[in-house]
Amino acid sequence: MSRTKDASPSTKEKKARAPKDPHLRCRAYKFRVYPTKKQAGKLEWMLRRCKELYNAALEERREAYRRCGISISYRMQAEQLPAIKQLREEYQDIHSQVLQDVLRRLDKAFQAFFRRVMNGEEPGYPRFKSGDRYHSITYPQGGFEILHGNRLHLCKVGHIKIKLHRAMKGKVKTCTIKREGEQWYAIVTCEYVHDASMTFHPSEQEVGVDLGVKVFAMLSTGEAIENPRHLREEEYKIAAAHRTIHRRKKGSHRRHRAKKALARVYRKVRNRRRDFHHKTSRKLVQQYQVIVFEDLQIKNLTATPKPKQDEATGLYLPNGEAAKAGLNKSILDAGWGGFVRLCASKAEEAGGTVVKVAPHFTSQLCSGCGAVVPKDLSVRWHCCPNCGVELDRDHNAARNILHRFQQNQPLGAGSVPQKPVPLRGEEPIL
């Protein structure tokens, strides 16, 4: 009682949150877990209950706004969880923070929806989840613990065997249990301190990288990284699996097994692509300090061509949609965006830098003299009539990418201004 009377007004005020350390980084580690048949059944049961809660919360938000014009927040729905547990006793067998994360996941979906509306993008209203579209549950703060290096303890589930194939760095923050087909994984998020200014790269080399379809990447040094074409290699298996699914009766056990077989093929393609990206990005980051890419808008590159209509007859004319669909599939199969993100994250850890430059006319300009040499996409060899430079089209583009970065690179503090270095074929600048 005396402590309450003597407390100053400042102690009753809400404490100011400490500023976040700018050097804090988060890294996710993905490990394979091997639940028993009983534990796998419990995890499947938890996924179904969390899916029901997600759909019920979405229905409540939608109907409250449609009928009364009221916007329901996360806090309003989270306060209803104790009453829901009293009404539906099965939810008492699920960790409370797992249920809270389900509502927070829905709240993030609505925040992203409103952000897209404000930016004039395609809104994409949050939709109801089916059993095939809800695959993970998250323990955001507690309820999980890694024991003895090969056991993962989950609250309300028990001890699950886990394969820790690499050491984790930093403080463990969250744990997500994810189902991928017939396999289960644990994604553990760790928080650690990393000061990029105190990390130095052993090399000072710079390289320009031109991403493509014929070859996955062409370096400005002339080295080509072949495109493995993971999806194209398994395309016939995917088509056969789809045909098997369509022959099965909907809702039958045979159709369910056929869908699992298709998921296994897709998972193999995805894992092979990710493994290729990790190995290739690690090799580039270790060899070069600065890696320069084009700032590609992949969503625009893979857009479907607009239909062409004859004004006189009203008939639709050929617009090259079939050929464009094949090119789009090859671009998405290469996975340019994921590869660039991996290079950026690995370069930051190694003391390197990933830079993006404007992609305009990198294939049309001559890397020797800077002249514009127009050529179609089918022309794979660059031949300049002005300076006589002859080299592969992608190699020419990679050199232009590196030149564009070097020309636009600002001088650092304390550096001595230098005369610009002329490109081959140009007159020296005096």
Key features of this structure:
single chain; alpha+beta; five-stranded mixed beta sheet; 20% strand; 13 helices; 430 residues; seven-stranded antiparallel beta sheet; Nucleotidyltransferase, domain 5
Tell me what you see in this structure.
The chain is an alpha+beta fold. It has two domains: 32-193, no CATH class; 198-228 and 269-306 and 327-408, Nucleotidyltransferase, domain 5 (2-Layer Sandwich), CATH 3.30.420. Helices cover 41% and strands 20% of the residues. It has 13 helices and 16 strands. Helix 8 (235-247) packs antiparallel against helix 9 and helix 9 packs across helix 12 (336-350). Mean pLDDT is 88; it is low at 1-12 and 411-430.
